[in-house]
Automatic annotation (TrEMBL):
This is Tyrosine-type recombinase/integrase. Coiled coil: none annotated. The keyword Transmembrane helix does not apply. The keyword ATP-binding does not apply. Residues 13-216 form the Tyr recombinase domain. PROSITE patterns: TYR_RECOMBINASE. CDD domains: INT_ICEBs1_C_like. It holds the Pfam family Phage_integrase. Keywords: DNA recombination. PANTHER family: PHAGE INTEGRASE-RELATED (PTHR30349), PROPHAGE INTEGRASE INTD-RELATED (PTHR30349:SF64).
């Protein structure tokens, strides 16, 4: 089943995620109106489902352009750099080619920006040792922090009038889209750095709606066949 489960439209409860169409609108606005750091940051989170602290903690040695993978091995927040949230959070995930191309474009920009501050990234053949943080301020060249990210979300939501979500809502969006596409829960859990149990606990309402929809779809399929064969009541 690949139909996206819609959020409740009563207004009583607003889920912290976007539909696929809303996500496209969100990213298009970010691309058109935000600086290259903000756009690339949001794109990576939306397409990988990583936590924002994990994205802030990415270093260029974690980006493998040849294999199209990103390795998560640290997190950054107000308190500085830390180990990932759990042991499951240590992971290497496959990333779509379009995202990797944007990261290549962004890396070229970073090289130019850092040079203005007398800094430089390592050569491609030495990338495994490059501990420079990926996402840097377009104003100072310093690694971005949580303060930046909250402001970015607010501006985009204001411009697009999309449902209000937090930055973590992009992670929920990634997971919910995958669930609605029928992907294996274990595979999704590994991608997000969770356990299958956590996926069931956090996204149980989505899985329940999918189960109900699958029952209806199965009955509808049999009824359609029955109608053609004269077996329907």
């Amino acid at each position: 089943m690949n139909q996206f489960i819609q959020r409740d439209e009563t207004g009583k409860k607003q889920e912290n995620y976007l539909t696929p169409a809303e996500l496209v609108t969100f990213l298009n606005d970010a691309k058109q109106n935000e600086n290259i750091t903000n756009y690339t940051f949001l794109l990576v989170i939306a397409y990988t489902g990583m936590r924002y602290g994990e994205a802030c903690g990415l270093q260029w040695k974690n980006i493998n352009f040849k294999e199209h993978t990103i390795t998560i091995e640290r997190s950054r927040d107000y308190g500085g750099t830390h180990k990932p949230k759990t042991l499951n959070s240590y992971r290497t995930i496959l990333v779509e080619e379009a995202v990797m191309k944007q990261l290549e474009t962004y890396k070229k920009w970073c090289k130019q920006k850092l040079l203005t501050y007398g800094l430089k990234l390592m050569d491609e053949d030495e990338y495994e040792n490059d501990d420079t943080f990926v996402f840097i301020s377009h104003l100072s060249g310093e690694p971005i922090g949580p303060n930046n990210t909250a402001k970015i979300m607010y501006k985009i939501i204001q411009r697009t009038r999309l449902p209000k979500i937090t930055l973590h809502g992009l992670r929920h969006t990634h997971c919910t889209i995958l669930l609605n596409r029928g992907l294996n829960v274990k595979v999704i859990a590994e991608r997000l750095g969770n356990t299958p149990k956590m996926i069931y606990e956090i996204y149980g309402h989505v899985l329940k709606e999918m189960e109900e929809a699958s029952v209806a779809a199965f009955s509808q399929s049999l009824n359609e066949v029955g109608a053609k064969s004269g077996a329907s009541s």
